[in-house]
Amino acid sequence: MIDQIIAICIASTLLFYAYFYHNAYRREKKLRQILFRKNLTNSEEIERVIREKEKQYQDIYDTANSIIIRWSPDFRIHSVNPYAEEFFQIAKDQVEGKDLVLDLFRIQFEKSNEIKSLLWNIFHRPEQNIRQEFDVYVGSDDKRTVTWSNRILKNEFGYPYEVLSIGIDITNRKIAEENLMKSYERILDLYNNAPCGYHSLDKDNVVVSINDTELDWLGYSREEIVGNLRINDLLTPSSYEKFEQIVHSFPHENLTGVELEFVRKDQSTFFVSLNSIPTFDKNGNFVISKSTVFDITDRKIAEDKLNDYSQKIQLQNKRLQKAVEAAIKANQSKSVFFSKITHELRTPLHAVIGFSQILEKDPNLPEHLKGYVNSLYENGVHLLGMINDILDLSKIEAGKMTETREKFSLVQLWDTLFSMFSYRFAEKNIQFELLHPETIENKYYEADLQKIRQILVNLLGNALKFTNQGFVNMEIQTKYGLEPNIDLVKFIVKDSGIGIPRDQLHSIFEAFQQTEQGSSYQEGTGLGLSISHQLVDFLGGTIQVESDLNKGSTFVFELPLNHLQDIPIELLQKSKIGPTDSKEVWHITKADDTEKEFVQNFLNSKENPFKNEILMMIKIQNFGQLLQLLGTIPFDDKGKTILLEKVKNKRYKFLIDLVQSTSS
């Protein structure tokens, strides 16, 4: 019984433990399943995060604006990012597995060991992010400067298996830094070697900076002055007192042109002009003053000398004033003398000219003397013109010139000038023309016509005298003046003559002055342009000249003239414009030239042995015997007939021109 009870107890116990372990096993199995599922979920999450991180890294790697290279300790390239491909201009598959220094950086072989040694130093500091800077080459010769950030990557055993290098191209920055440094050096050089001195003072007037120029003036070194000396140590006592008064009177104001006396290290002095500008911080507190210093010692010495000279000049001016007054009186006396003497000369000269005209018309005057009488008349008229020039100048200088006003038209003025000069220009085969004649029609004025005409006669006479070929043009322009009924009338005389040297233009309007070309080219008093200039001034106008040597001259003068409102009928009748071009009268002078050719052919004919006798009789003006000689020549010739006609009609000018042209 007891055995059965024990057996039952043992069996119950075994059953209990079996049941307990069975339930425990089931619970453990269920727990393991739960943990497995949980670990599986965690593993998937971890893998997902890793994949996301890898994707982010790859995105950064692919899109970075920096050069990223992964390479092994033996300098073999593992990978490069797209930016590196673009920067080095080489494809990824062409460079991976190649040598970093030789194939990617393209460093020359002889310099490659130097760069590899530099990169190998990374492994001496494996825990640090190593920064380096060196040049690489893009293409064959494009050198770029790159700054590198290098990081060593290690495996699970702690051994370095790869280097991650991130590079940034700093070529432009380096160039900018170099340019900035050069600019700084230039500015520093300008500061130190400027022709003036520069220094700065702090609030205690201690020198905190100074340039080399001012140091040279003072004779100190920079160490002796900067931070050690005050401005009062560099000034004489009187100058420092002056400086203090100005600074106290005008605190925090700019100083300009303050003259001070500086003391050198050897105690000698020199004068300066000081300009100073104060600078302040953002709170308005004074920081330093910046000063510019100019050495004015030479100027001060010159001023002292100038003061001495000024006193001497004042004394000399008083003496000169007396001399000028005496010269004015003498000039007035000279003008009065010229006025009187020329007036006295004109009276007998008029008599000479008058008597020569009477003699020329005398039928009893021998033929051989008529040419001399004509020459006497022409020279007398020339001399009278010179005397009139001197008399006009004397009147102007003596202040006796008066204005005579009369009514006239510009057409009337032109017709007078054309009749005076057209034949003379035609004789020289020079074209004399009025440009734009329509501008002078219906232009009527009241002014001193005689003086205006005299100015134009002088200018046209000069143009005729100094022009041998080409043209002489005249133009008249009008425009309204500033006042009613006043026109500004511009007269322009242009020629193609010998011209005037530019260095002599300033003197052509002076009395008794002629240019070198003019004085050697023609005789004259040299008063025409001076009188014209003074007449223009007298009439309230201006005159100027432009000229080129051997190309011609242009004289322009402008006068204010009173425009007529009511025009007299007789003036309208006289204002019909006539010829405006000397070509219209060329046929007359050309006819003489043609006749002269026939006569010269007759004289040079082999059938005429009397050429020299004929020319001699013309020279001595023995025209009676000449007519007899021509009558004895047996053959008929047109030149002989023309010569007979000229001798009978006493064409002296034709005969004299014939002798001159044949002799030459």
TrEMBL record:
CDD domains: HATPase_EvgS-ArcB-TorS-like, HisKA, PAS. Residues 299-326 form a coiled coil. It catalyses: ATP + protein L-histidine = ADP + protein N-phospho-L-histidine. Residues 340-563 form the Histidine kinase domain. GO terms for molecular function: kinase activity. Pfam families: HATPase_c, HisKA, PAS_9. InterPro entries: HATPase_C_sf (IPR036890), HATPase_dom (IPR003594), His_kinase_dom (IPR005467), HisK_dim/P_dom (IPR003661), HisK_dim/P_sf (IPR036097), PAC (IPR001610), PAS (IPR000014), PAS-assoc_C (IPR000700). Its EC number is 2.7.13.3. Residues 53-105, 183-254 form the PAS domain. Residues 256-308 form the PAC domain. The keyword Metal-binding does not apply. PROSITE patterns: HIS_KIN (PS50109), PAC (PS50113), PAS (PS50112). Keywords: Coiled coil, Kinase, Phosphoprotein, Transferase. This is histidine kinase. It comes from Leptospira bouyouniensis.
